[in-house]
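Q: What would this chain look like folded?
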Amino acid sequence: MTLSQFWKKIYSNPRRIRRRKRYGIPAMVAFRDAMSKAGIPWSPVYGTLLGAIREKGFIKHDDDIDTGVWSDSITGGLDNLHRCLEEAGFTYSHCFLVDGGEFAREETWKWHGLHVDIFFFDPIEGDRCKGYMFYPFKGTANFRESNKLYGGLRVVEFEVPFAKQTEMVPFDSIEVPITKSAEGFVVARYGINWRIPDPTFVYPQPGVVGNVERPDKLAVKTR
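A: My prediction, written as C-alpha coordinates:
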Protein backbone atom coordinates (compact mmCIF):
# COMPACT_ATOMS: atom_id res chain seq x y z
CA MET A 1 0.00 0.00 0.00
CA THR A 2 1.40 3.37 -1.04
CA LEU A 3 1.44 6.40 1.25
CA SER A 4 -1.29 7.98 -0.87
CA GLN A 5 -3.49 4.87 -0.60
CA PHE A 6 -2.90 4.69 3.16
CA TRP A 7 -3.87 8.35 3.56
CA LYS A 8 -7.10 7.84 1.58
CA LYS A 9 -8.06 4.75 3.59
CA ILE A 10 -7.33 6.20 7.04
CA TYR A 11 -8.27 9.86 6.60
CA SER A 12 -9.59 11.06 3.24
CA ASN A 13 -12.25 8.44 2.49
CA PRO A 14 -13.78 8.34 6.03
CA ARG A 15 -13.91 12.14 6.01
CA ARG A 16 -15.76 12.17 2.68
CA ILE A 17 -18.23 9.55 3.94
CA ARG A 18 -18.96 11.65 7.04
CA ARG A 19 -19.59 14.66 4.80
CA ARG A 20 -21.97 12.64 2.64
CA LYS A 21 -23.90 11.47 5.71
CA ARG A 22 -24.28 15.07 6.86
CA TYR A 23 -25.03 16.80 3.57
CA GLY A 24 -26.18 14.00 1.23
CA ILE A 25 -29.94 14.46 1.56
CA PRO A 26 -29.90 18.30 1.54
CA ALA A 27 -27.65 18.13 -1.54
CA MET A 28 -30.06 15.74 -3.30
CA VAL A 29 -32.97 18.08 -2.53
CA ALA A 30 -31.03 21.10 -3.80
CA PHE A 31 -29.98 19.24 -6.97
CA ARG A 32 -33.50 17.95 -7.61
CA ASP A 33 -34.95 21.44 -7.23
CA ALA A 34 -32.24 23.03 -9.41
CA MET A 35 -32.83 20.54 -12.21
CA SER A 36 -36.58 21.07 -11.97
CA LYS A 37 -36.04 24.83 -12.27
CA ALA A 38 -33.75 24.30 -15.27
CA GLY A 39 -36.30 21.98 -16.91
CA ILE A 40 -33.69 19.25 -17.32
CA PRO A 41 -34.62 15.58 -16.70
CA TRP A 42 -32.14 13.54 -14.68
CA SER A 43 -31.68 10.38 -12.66
CA PRO A 44 -29.21 9.06 -10.11
CA VAL A 45 -26.69 6.72 -11.75
CA TYR A 46 -23.98 4.26 -10.70
CA GLY A 47 -23.67 3.85 -6.91
CA THR A 48 -26.37 6.41 -6.13
CA LEU A 49 -28.86 4.62 -8.39
CA LEU A 50 -27.88 1.27 -6.90
CA GLY A 51 -28.57 2.71 -3.45
CA ALA A 52 -31.91 4.14 -4.59
CA ILE A 53 -33.32 0.80 -5.74
CA ARG A 54 -31.59 -1.50 -3.23
CA GLU A 55 -31.30 0.53 -0.04
CA LYS A 56 -33.92 3.25 -0.66
CA GLY A 57 -31.12 5.68 0.16
CA PHE A 58 -27.36 5.96 0.03
CA ILE A 59 -25.08 2.93 0.17
CA LYS A 60 -23.17 3.04 3.45
CA HIS A 61 -19.73 3.52 1.93
CA ASP A 62 -20.81 6.05 -0.74
CA ASP A 63 -18.87 9.31 -0.43
CA ASP A 64 -20.39 11.30 -3.30
CA ILE A 65 -23.52 11.66 -5.45
CA ASP A 66 -23.66 10.35 -9.02
CA THR A 67 -26.24 11.87 -11.37
CA GLY A 68 -26.93 11.41 -15.06
CA VAL A 69 -28.50 13.60 -17.74
CA TRP A 70 -29.25 13.03 -21.42
CA SER A 71 -27.06 15.13 -23.69
CA ASP A 72 -29.96 16.02 -26.00
CA SER A 73 -32.20 17.13 -23.13
CA ILE A 74 -30.17 20.01 -21.70
CA THR A 75 -32.96 22.58 -21.95
CA GLY A 76 -31.48 26.05 -22.38
CA GLY A 77 -27.98 24.65 -22.81
CA LEU A 78 -25.15 24.29 -20.33
CA ASP A 79 -25.38 27.95 -19.29
CA ASN A 80 -28.91 27.35 -18.01
CA LEU A 81 -27.82 24.20 -16.16
CA HIS A 82 -24.87 25.96 -14.55
CA ARG A 83 -26.87 29.03 -13.58
CA CYS A 84 -29.57 26.98 -11.84
CA LEU A 85 -26.96 24.95 -9.93
CA GLU A 86 -25.17 28.09 -8.78
CA GLU A 87 -28.44 29.69 -7.68
CA ALA A 88 -29.15 26.54 -5.63
CA GLY A 89 -25.86 26.91 -3.75
CA PHE A 90 -23.62 24.56 -5.74
CA THR A 91 -20.07 25.57 -6.57
CA TYR A 92 -18.31 24.37 -9.70
CA SER A 93 -15.24 22.21 -9.07
CA HIS A 94 -13.95 20.80 -12.38
CA CYS A 95 -14.85 18.76 -15.43
CA PHE A 96 -13.33 16.21 -17.78
CA LEU A 97 -13.69 16.94 -21.48
CA VAL A 98 -13.04 14.67 -24.44
CA ASP A 99 -12.45 16.58 -27.68
CA GLY A 100 -13.30 19.79 -25.86
CA GLY A 101 -16.61 18.32 -24.71
CA GLU A 102 -17.81 17.48 -28.23
CA PHE A 103 -17.30 13.74 -27.69
CA ALA A 104 -17.91 13.41 -23.95
CA ARG A 105 -17.93 15.37 -20.71
CA GLU A 106 -18.28 14.84 -16.96
CA GLU A 107 -18.76 17.67 -14.46
CA THR A 108 -18.15 17.81 -10.71
CA TRP A 109 -19.91 20.30 -8.47
CA LYS A 110 -19.78 20.71 -4.69
CA TRP A 111 -22.38 21.21 -1.99
CA HIS A 112 -20.71 22.07 1.33
CA GLY A 113 -17.67 20.16 0.10
CA LEU A 114 -19.67 17.08 -0.98
CA HIS A 115 -18.92 16.07 -4.57
CA VAL A 116 -21.86 15.81 -6.96
CA ASP A 117 -20.87 14.34 -10.32
CA ILE A 118 -22.91 14.89 -13.48
CA PHE A 119 -22.46 12.27 -16.20
CA PHE A 120 -23.68 13.04 -19.72
CA PHE A 121 -25.25 10.16 -21.68
CA ASP A 122 -25.78 10.13 -25.45
CA PRO A 123 -29.07 8.50 -26.56
CA ILE A 124 -28.66 5.89 -29.29
CA GLU A 125 -32.08 4.37 -29.97
CA GLY A 126 -34.96 3.22 -27.84
CA ASP A 127 -33.95 3.26 -24.18
CA ARG A 128 -30.26 2.66 -24.82
CA CYS A 129 -27.59 5.28 -24.30
CA LYS A 130 -23.87 5.56 -24.71
CA GLY A 131 -21.95 6.43 -21.55
CA TYR A 132 -18.33 7.19 -20.77
CA MET A 133 -16.03 6.60 -17.80
CA PHE A 134 -12.53 7.95 -17.31
CA TYR A 135 -9.72 6.06 -15.58
CA PRO A 136 -5.98 6.50 -14.91
CA PHE A 137 -3.82 4.96 -17.60
CA LYS A 138 -2.56 1.48 -16.80
CA GLY A 139 0.72 1.59 -14.94
CA THR A 140 -0.15 4.84 -13.15
CA ALA A 141 -1.18 4.95 -9.49
CA ASN A 142 -3.91 7.59 -9.62
CA PHE A 143 -5.55 10.43 -11.56
CA ARG A 144 -2.76 12.85 -10.73
CA GLU A 145 -0.01 10.58 -12.03
CA SER A 146 -2.03 9.77 -15.14
CA ASN A 147 -2.50 13.48 -15.83
CA LYS A 148 1.20 14.14 -15.32
CA LEU A 149 2.43 11.34 -17.58
CA TYR A 150 -0.26 11.25 -20.25
CA GLY A 151 -1.97 14.63 -20.05
CA GLY A 152 -5.27 13.13 -18.98
CA LEU A 153 -7.24 9.93 -18.43
CA ARG A 154 -8.07 6.98 -20.65
CA VAL A 155 -11.62 6.81 -22.01
CA VAL A 156 -13.92 3.80 -21.72
CA GLU A 157 -17.16 3.81 -23.73
CA PHE A 158 -20.17 1.56 -23.10
CA GLU A 159 -23.87 1.13 -23.85
CA VAL A 160 -26.44 0.91 -21.10
CA PRO A 161 -30.24 0.95 -20.70
CA PHE A 162 -31.07 4.48 -19.55
CA ALA A 163 -34.64 5.50 -20.39
CA LYS A 164 -35.54 9.17 -20.32
CA GLN A 165 -38.84 8.29 -18.65
CA THR A 166 -38.50 8.56 -14.86
CA GLU A 167 -40.59 7.81 -11.80
CA MET A 168 -40.43 9.26 -8.31
CA VAL A 169 -39.24 6.82 -5.65
CA PRO A 170 -38.51 7.09 -1.92
CA PHE A 171 -34.90 7.94 -1.12
CA ASP A 172 -34.33 8.12 2.62
CA SER A 173 -36.64 10.94 3.79
CA ILE A 174 -37.26 12.42 0.32
CA GLU A 175 -38.27 11.36 -3.19
CA VAL A 176 -36.13 11.49 -6.31
CA PRO A 177 -36.75 10.65 -9.98
CA ILE A 178 -35.08 7.51 -11.26
CA THR A 179 -34.93 6.16 -14.80
CA LYS A 180 -37.48 3.46 -15.57
CA SER A 181 -34.51 1.41 -16.83
CA ALA A 182 -32.96 1.47 -13.36
CA GLU A 183 -32.65 -2.29 -12.92
CA GLY A 184 -31.24 -2.77 -16.42
CA PHE A 185 -28.71 -0.02 -15.75
CA VAL A 186 -27.39 -1.56 -12.52
CA VAL A 187 -27.32 -5.07 -14.00
CA ALA A 188 -25.25 -3.75 -16.91
CA ARG A 189 -22.76 -2.00 -14.61
CA TYR A 190 -22.74 -4.19 -11.47
CA GLY A 191 -23.82 -7.66 -12.64
CA ILE A 192 -26.79 -9.88 -11.89
CA ASN A 193 -25.93 -10.12 -8.18
CA TRP A 194 -26.43 -6.39 -7.57
CA ARG A 195 -29.04 -7.07 -4.88
CA ILE A 196 -26.41 -8.65 -2.62
CA PRO A 197 -24.10 -6.10 -0.94
CA ASP A 198 -20.46 -7.01 -1.58
CA PRO A 199 -17.90 -5.12 0.56
CA THR A 200 -15.10 -6.47 -1.67
CA PHE A 201 -16.62 -5.13 -4.89
CA VAL A 202 -14.21 -3.17 -7.06
CA TYR A 203 -15.52 -0.94 -9.85
CA PRO A 204 -15.18 -1.44 -12.72
CA GLN A 205 -15.29 -5.20 -12.60
CA PRO A 206 -12.70 -6.84 -14.87
CA GLY A 207 -14.29 -8.06 -18.07
CA VAL A 208 -17.57 -6.16 -17.75
CA VAL A 209 -19.46 -6.82 -20.98
CA GLY A 210 -19.84 -3.76 -23.17
CA ASN A 211 -16.81 -1.75 -22.09
CA VAL A 212 -14.84 -0.48 -25.08
CA GLU A 213 -11.45 1.13 -24.65
CA ARG A 214 -10.98 4.27 -26.78
CA PRO A 215 -7.22 4.67 -27.25
CA ASP A 216 -7.95 7.44 -29.77
CA LYS A 217 -9.52 9.61 -27.07
CA LEU A 218 -8.21 11.44 -24.00
CA ALA A 219 -10.19 12.90 -21.11
CA VAL A 220 -8.65 16.23 -20.08
CA LYS A 221 -9.36 17.81 -16.71
CA THR A 222 -10.30 21.49 -16.80
CA ARG A 223 -11.27 23.99 -14.10
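The first helix runs from residue 3 to 38.
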